[in-house]
Design goal:
- The structure is a single chain.
- The protein is an all-alpha fold.
- The protein has helices at 2-15, 19-22, 31-44, 50-62, 68-73, 76-85, 92-110, 115-121, 125-132, 140-150, 163-171, 178-185, 191-203, 205-212.
- The longest helix has 19 residues, at 92-110.
Amino acid sequence: MSGERARVQALLDAYGRTYADEAGIRLKDTPQPLYQLLVLSCLLSARIQANIAVAASRALSDAGLRTARRMKDATWQQRVDALGEGGYRRYDERTATQLGDGAELLLDSYGGDLRRIRDAADGDTDRLRKLLREVPGLGPAGVDIFLREAQAVWPELEPHLDAKALQGAERVGLPAAPDALLKAAGKKTEPAVLAAALVRAALDKKGAEEIRKAK
């Protein structure tokens, strides 16, 4: 167990930060930060470097597009320009369209408030996953990203350690089972932070190898 704890500590020292935190999102169970997290999840789910997706999320926020209403009311070109400002150029035009369509869906169906999707799911994670999949641009990977991060404010999701996080666990020499991972991490480690750290390790082979050597 001491070896596992050492690897967990090395993991958290290297990667112990959620993507929402990196994007400057002060995550709370309120409409604006939850919407910003949804947008970030859409951006991260594309085949593009995570740091670019995070930069694009910050650029959209800087442009004032922090709510579904503001995203919908912005022109397509304004969304494209903000994405480009963040370096998100490969998928900027398609993503600008998806963000507009997604904002419209959220406004029409849930008043722009993702807490209403949570209420509609009524504690059923599979139902929540299905409802989130209706958002344009949010595929299975994007839903997993959202759930990994949202568990910080929606405790009924804890612990959400999906396949990507468990891949990271294997890469750093930790058990690829949620219960064993949580035990090794200890009660003070937030599952959302642990999940983000494991995903980052899955994406950084060299860094993961260094963590694996911790004793």
